[in-house]
Amino acid sequence: MHKFTGLIALLLLASSNLWAQLNIYYVDVGQGDAIYIELPNGHNALIDGGPNGTAITKFLKEKNVTHIDNLVLTHPHSDHYVGLKKVFAVTDVKNFYDSRAENVNAKGDNNLRELAAAEPGCKTHFPAPGDNLNWDSRVTVKVLNSCTEAVQTHNNDETNNCSLVLRLFYNGTGLLMMGDSDAVVENAMTRIFKSGLQSYALKVGHHGSRYSSTAAFLGRVQPKVAIVSVGLDNVYGHPHKEAIDRIRATGAKIFYTTSGTQTLFIPAPKKGVEPEIIGPVPYDPATMAIPAEVRGVIYTPPVEAPVSVNIESLNQLKEAAASK
Question: What topology does CATH give the domain 21-323?
Answer without folding.
Answer: Metallo-beta-lactamase; Chain A (3.60.15)
